[in-house]
Amino acid sequence: MKTRDTLRQEIRYQRSLLNTAQQAEQSLLLSKKLIKDKVVKGVKHIAIYLANDGELNTQPFINWCWQNSIAVYLPVIHPFSKGNLLFLKYTENSILVKNKYGILEPRLDVRNIITLAQLDIIFTPLVAFDPQGNRLGMGGGFYDRTLAAWHAQYQQNKEATPLPVGLAHDCQKVTAIPFESWDIPLPKIITPTTSYNFDI
């Protein structure tokens, strides 16, 4: 089995081969697929991310959420708790700043923070995924830490919220991902062409 670092390099390279037109087309297909997916019906608060490093552009879906009175929140690197995330409200008027990874995030304002318990869905980025729902991230462990408490609850109650849903290009699916004890698998991953549901 390939190492995690090798997989990251290979899939990021595959993703980088998509040109601007292909990226735009795939992002619109994803947005249409998300809008129609039953997982989005009735939700009021979602966390999502802004695309980086060849990820699918989430802004078309975010725009739809704004138009349909769904509150949108973005991840912000926690300023005091190392390796953890906060989620802050994102609107058309939000002031965005670059974090230490060069990723845009809302300027920290405690008035705009939402707790995990208040979120319906957390749409998570990923580098690769496999047929078991295993997710390979960039290696920082931010989402694994964020989802650890949810995962513990999910083992007892399959309706536990917030539901984590991975978003990815079709080319990011691989045969197998080397699994570590701290990894949190995802119950659902959506690509521009397919919705995957996993029994985790």
Chart the SSEs and their pairings.
Layout: H1 4-16, H2 20-36, E1 45-47, H3 59-67, E2 71-77, E3 85-89, E4 96-98, E5 104-106, E6 113-114, E7 121-124, E8 128-129, E9 135-136, H4 142-154, E10 163-167, E11 188-190, E12 195-197
Parallel strand pairs: 1-2, 1-7, 7-10, 10-11
Antiparallel strand pairs: 2-3, 3-6, 4-5, 8-9, 11-12
Mean pLDDT, all residues: 92
Radius of gyration: 16 Å
Helix share of residues? 25-40%
Strands side by side in the biggest sheet: 6-3-2-1-7-10-11-12
Number of H- or I-type helical stretches: 4
Poorly predicted segments: none
Provide a brief overview of the structure.
The chain is an alpha/beta fold and 200 residues long.
What does this structure look like?
By secondary structure, the protein is of the alpha/beta class. The chain is built from four helices and twelve strands; from the N terminus they run ααβαββββββββαβββ. The strands form three sheets. It has an eight-stranded mixed β-sheet with strand order 6-3-2-1-7-10-11-12, sandwiched between helices. The protein has a two-stranded antiparallel ribbon with strand order 4-5. A two-stranded antiparallel ribbon has the order 8-9. The protein is globular and about 45 Å long. The mean pLDDT is 92.
Task: List the defining traits of the structure above.
single chain; Rossmann fold; 8-stranded mixed beta sheet; two-stranded antiparallel ribbon
